[in-house]
Amino acid sequence: MMSRWHMPQKTFHREADEDHVEEIPGQCPSYRDHIKLTFGCKHYKRNCKLIAPCCNKLFTCIRCHDDLTTDHVVDRKAITKMMCMKCLVIQPIGPKCTSESCSGFSMGKYYCRICKLFDDKRQIYHCPYCNLCRVGKGLGIDYFHCMKCNACMSKSLSVHVCIEKCFEDNCPICHDYIFTSNSPVKQLPCGHFMHSSCFQAYTSSNYSCPTCSNSLGDIQVSCYPSSYLL
Prior knowledge:
alpha+beta, 4-stranded antiparallel sheet, 4 helices, 15 strands, elongated, disordered N terminus
């Protein structure tokens, strides 16, 4: 009798476990703060995950994908589906969860339908000239877009040295592409740019621009942070 009772129980538990297998890798919540159970990742506070069409896997953000994948990067504009981290329902990408159980649960205070970007913490704006989302209150508020430099800049740089398409270049120190960089950048008095972190390290022992060799002058006064990509 005992052996006959145990066999169905084992079969039931095995079937129950199979029902809970993830249909898409990553189909579970991720937390920015595990103690407070705040949804998100180290890059963003948000309430959804994105399906990367290149991998058919769920990632909390594009940067999480690119950090974990070494052979390619995701095309953010090709993303069409998301997963609400409250109900785990996969659905078309949008500003709110469309499942009845979530009653319009917001995926983030900021949502850009072009960049497929969600954020529930920072002030962000989409620049139509860069065609990218950048940190800040917006064009005409704390940033402006210089059409010659093709760059979003702090309003404190309204008077600056214009170099045509200066953002469309690599940082002279780390050689990462500046235009789509996730790190803040600084403009030197000569008009060239480098990452703020690279600037700090470089100017500890150097006093001229690594691109044109012009003097940096009073670096504390002449250099200001520019907007950066999210």
